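Lecture 7 notes: from sequence to structure.
We start with the chain below.
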Amino acid sequence: MRAIRRFSVRPVLPEPLTGLGTLVNNLRWAWHPETQDVFEAVDAQLWRSTGGDPVRLLAEVPAARLDELANDHAFLRRLELAVADLTGYVTDDRWFQSEAGTPVNSVAYFSPEFGITHVLPQYSGGLGILAGDHLKAASDLGVPLIGVGLLYRHGYFVQSLNSEGWQQERYPLVDPDGLPISLLRDGRDSSNAPALVTVTLPGGRELHAQVWIAQVGRVPLLMLDSDIEENEPAEREVTDRLYGGTTEHRLLQELLLGVGGVRAVRTYCRITGHAAPEVFHTNEGHAGFLGIERIRELAAEGLDFDTALEVARGGTVFTTHTPVPAGIDRFPVELIQQHFSPDTFGEGVPIDRILALGAEDFENGDPSVFNMAIMGLRLAQRANGVSKLHGVVSRGMFAGLWPSFDPSDVPITSITNGVHAPTWVAREIAGLTYANADQGDSEGMFEGLDKTTDAQLWETKRILRQRFIDDTRRRVHDSWVNRGASEAELGWVDSILDPDVLTMGFARRVPSYKRLTLMLRDPERLKALLLHPYRPIQIVIAGKAHPADEGGKKLIQEMVRFADDPEVRHRIVFVPDYDIALAQPMYPGCDVWLNNPLRPYEACGTSGMKAALNGALNLSIRDGWWDEWYDDEFGWAIPSAEGIEDTDRRDDLEAHALYDIIEKQVAPRFYDGDVPGRWIEMLRHTIKELGPKVLATRMVRDYVERLYVPAAHSSRQLNSTFEGARELAAWKKRVRAAWPQVRVDHVELQGLGDVPQLGTTVGIRAYVSLGELTPADIDVEALHGRVDSNDEITDPVRVSISLAETYEGNRHRYEGELKLDRTGPFGYTVRVLPKHPMLASPAELGLAAAPSDPDDPETPDLPAGSEF
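Predicted structure tokens for the same chain:
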């Protein structure tokens, strides 16, 4: 008979082995090989058969073996050392504590998914893996972070293929009792019941959630779970699966993540005494409702909406990962009205103000939708993209929010993603190349590489290639059995791939812009590369299409059908169910990492970073991080045919460029001798020079120094008595009301001469009318530099010019100097911007005044005494 419910029963460890429980319950084991060695010593065969899952290991190890270990003095000493090492890791001062003081009390980091380990399947792809690496690196650096997400009872789907090569999805139940997590319990009475958070829904319904804690080194990850008896059946399903369900279902998930997440943080801090967050980091728009909940909290303390908004904004950071508008969550306005009505959300936050936060009230915007990314930007005083190129794309994509500014002035900066080396670098590579990654110290990390011979590196890569091939053969065998093949038909699987052949990897999500099948544009050309008699290549491919993406599934099927061809199936394979467990042997086992997105639609992309740290060379379109850090010693750039509107022609051009690079550059260099010196030279250069740049510790340091510390400073200034927030809100209201009267009346240069020459310094004067504002409210800025054919100033130099004289009617003359520091077409202009010490950017209000006519043929009504 089928059980009506399942749960896991954990073993009672003998007292000498209680340290095993300590190790299991801190996910540091996921990136700490020495702790994994302790688990393997419990039962090596069981450790492998459970896929490296310590909870399953301890649940399945025979009691007799535990009793044996409890009397094994060598094992107990090893266990004692491992526990002591973990204790030191979570308590000793690290990079953050070594800074002068603690510039941030605590940061709450919200994300819809977290990829920590394959044992905790709460991720779908790059966003979740990035969030997991962010938490791990914060732990390594000692940054006081609290992660906030949801616990999905079915996680993301498990991918398989049917006989026709079509993607199949399966959603196995995730049993929290079988995971290395624990419930947050209130402890205020003898029942020690689980702590609950509650979100009110329309119609008087309530959505309750318990809070699970995954301890990620020093960082607690709070995961809200609605599958509890306190909920009605519909509400129990809110956290059923990642990125599934109807539009309203997604809205409920994001309400629980944002609103419920803030409440979970408050509960956790109250119970544990953890420092309350000064900074809230919204990783993509999914968690954006956290800002509205913080406004509601402040309104409950008596603050008006505008003041509460300034307090919330000052301490909020928003990171966008989306390079295209189609990737943003947008909800019907009517749904937002229902879920944030006064009856549902309370009286302190007017629904019209909430709707305004997510309104697409700009040119070509859709007034019928509520845009989560737009809300995220409006609720955060600081925002960033995830690579330099993505920062440019984001400033262009969201420029409508700042219509008075050029895209280059839009206040969205960039912090390029990084990857957590201890998680992704193979142990063999780590032993040869670097140390102290656990300290988050990139300096000197790769010095060991200088002591390693070319032959050692080459042999190590071959060992890792063989390990990856062994893992791939097992997975391909299991996939074919699942597709209906019999064992008698699968003898060929034992000889697929070759540890002495140039191995390329391609693994990522399968939206159309990542172009999984670009390599198939000319199938015969690809076959020739795969089957070359002297310099063959082999390719291992993996990736999942979203369950609702029929186009992505067709791409996978096209790739699978090509790889099924008996002529080439020993050289190219598609491996289903791409996840952390598949990725960890794949990156070290590849020699080249292939990436061919449509530029500029790859926000960052981190898989190539992980491969590089493992001594693989990149072969990629210059998009995302590769555009920023490309060096011909790190690999090869596929020329982009960006600008060609015919997509088929563009794909053909880029595919044939890819074939040429492989045939004429990559393969010859790989096969250049028994130990190809030039290849090894590039490998060394990649690890030593690129390695420090792609580390997640570098990324988190950037967040701390450039965003978290300034946000904490703003938060303290606005939060201490709220007077700063009240003054800032009142100032913004006054400036917005008066801005239509602000104008630049006239601009002139002095000392230009008949023939302007390089190095000349000229004077600039600007006559400005301020209406109801004062000079203290504004900054007058001169911009100058080279101009293009449309007289647009490219890469302008900005100089604030000073108040020189005041006239009647609140008119003023400002003066300064410009240096003619470049030859060729040169231009200048002047603009007036709001100025306040609490603004994070001059563009924060979206207001600017510039000369109405750039040619300025006449000077209207100049003040007496002005020289013209």
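Points to note: The radius of gyration is 30 Å. The longest strand covers residues 206-216.
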